[in-house]
Design a protein that fits this description.
The complex is a heterodimer of chains A (about 170) and B (about 180). Chain A is α/β, with parallel strands linked by helices. Chain A has a domain at about 50-165: Creatine Amidinohydrolase, Chain A, domain 1 (3-Layer(aba) Sandwich). Helices cover about 30% and strands about 20% of the residues of chain A. Chain A has 4 helices and 6 strands, in the order H-H-E-E-E-E-H-E-H-E. Chain A has helices at about 10-15, 25-40, 110-125, 140-155; strands at about 45-55, 75-80, 90-95, 100-105, 130-135, 160-165. Chain A has a 6-stranded mixed sheet, with helices on one face. In chain A, strand 5 (about 130-135), helix 4 (about 140-155) and strand 6 (about 160-165) form a beta-alpha-beta unit. The longest helix of chain A is centred in the N-terminal third of the chain and has 17 residues, at about 25-40. The N and C termini of chain A lie far apart (about 120 Å). Chain B has about 180 residues and is α/β, with parallel strands linked by helices. Helix content of chain B is about 35%, strand content about 20%. In chain B, strands 3-8-7-4-5-6 form a 6-stranded mixed sheet, with helices on one face. A two-stranded antiparallel sheet of chain B has the order 1-2. The longest helix of chain B is centred in the first third of the chain and has 17 residues, at about 30-45. Chain B starts with 10 loop residues before the first strand and ends in a 7-residue tail after the last helix. Classes of the chains: A alpha/beta (about 170), B alpha/beta (about 180). Chains A and B meet through helix 2, strand 1, helix 3 and helix 4 of A and helix 1, strand 3, strand 7, helix 5 and strand 8 of B.
Chain lengths: ~170, ~180
């Protein structure tokens, strides 16, 4: 009668401790991905200002359903410092009742505080109006345009129409 | 990792008993892995490829605004970077001369028109309504150049145009013109 040694498999089942999964490869992957993703995070967020277009102004187009230009608008005209033949450098607000408010520059500075006060007053006068036209002359700095649009939106005129002046400077 | 076995011998009569060697346990990284997994999921959720297209340019001075509007959901973004001495178009930042070239040179305007038309043509029909032109312009360029960009973009039927700015809730109270800063 033969004698057999116990099965090797059975012997191992009884003796081997449960193995922990090897996490080193996945750790390597994570340590690679996380710095990469952190590099892609934008710390200084760029803000955005949306724009609408007056069809009779900058050759058509409309943003978010605006455009058309048939409805009367409160207008802000921005005149630049240079070539102000007959015009004054600063803001001119044209009300719907054809009255004009002139806000000339104080020294080097555009009078944004007065512009804001006047727009707040106009918003109280026309609470249902949310559109406003900004007529910008060619020599005006982009910074002034954006700040003007910003004040319009802040005071409740959320739909700002970018308009080109029909009359131009005479050089 | 070395295994330190400790052999203890006891005297039990004449028989020597060898205690089983104990393995030193490795540092458990399971909790670290949990934390990293949470961070990874959080970062992946927050990464926006559209934001990277219009990230802040270090060599550009942006105008400041109080208002901050959200870009449309899943837009087809075409950025235009307008410096005082050059204009770069698209995600690839293709140079197209100076701002003055855009006004004085008909070929530059034609190339710009073709670029915008090609960009619009490359956008799938279903996404055309969310096509956005994002103008990243230096604060101290003249509006005539911005107007020209907008004129051509509207000709190419871009339905949405955004201006990139830097949000600053206090700019109005702190406002000083550049010449006296």
């Amino acid at each position: 009668m033969g004698v057999y040694r116990p099965s090797q498999a059975r012997q191992q089942q009884g003796q081997t401790a449960p193995q922990e999964p090897n996490l080193v490869p996945i750790m390597n992957l994570f340590i690679t991905i996380i710095p990469f993703l952190m590099l892609m995070i934008v710390i200084s967020q760029v803000a955005m200002i949306a724009l609408n277009f007056e069809s009779s102004g900058v050759s058509g187009g409309s943003g978010e359903g605006a455009g058309g230009g048939s409805e009367a608008l409160v207008e802000i005209r921005i005149y630049a410092t240079e070539h102000e033949t007959g015009l004054f450098p600063g803001f001119e607000i044209r009300d719907l009742d054809k009255s004009v408010i002139k806000l000339p520059k104080a020294g080097d500075a555009f009078d944004f505080a007065s512009l804001q006060n006047n727009l707040v007053r106009l918003k109280e006068k026309y609470p249902d109006k949310s559109e406003i036209g900004v007529v910008v002359y060619p020599d005006v700095m982009y910074d002034i345009l954006i700040r003007t649009i910003d004040i319009c939106k802040q005071t409740g005129f959320v739909t700002v129409k970018y308009m080109n002046p029909k009359e131009m400077y005479y050089y | 990792m070395s295994v330190h076995g400790q052999v203890v011998s006891k005297k039990q009569g004449s028989r020597r008993v060898r205690k089983k060697a104990e393995e030193a346990h490795g540092l458990s990284i399971t909790s670290l892995l949990d934390v990293l997994t949470i961070i990874l999921v959080f970062l992946i959720k927050n990464v926006s490829m559209e934001t990277t297209k219009i990230s802040e340019l270090e060599d550009m001075i942006y105008p400041q605004t109080i208002t901050n509007e959200k870009l449309m959901e899943n837009p087809e973004v075409v950025p235009v970077k307008m410096y005082q001495d050059k204009i770069l178009f698209g995600i690839e930042s293709l140079p197209l001369g100076t701002p003055d070239d855009m006004i004085s040179d008909a070929n530059t305007r034609e190339a710009m028109k073709q670029f915008f038309l090609n960009e619009m043509a490359s956008i799938p029909e279903a996404k055309k309504s969310s096509a956005c032109l994002v103008v990243q312009a230096d604060a101290f360029i003249r509006c005539v150049y911005v107007t020209e960009i907008i004129r051509v973009a509207t000709y190419a039927n871009f339905p949405n145009i955004y201006f990139a700015t830097i949000e600053d809730p206090d700019w109005l109270s702190d406002y000083r013109p550049a010449s006296i800063q």
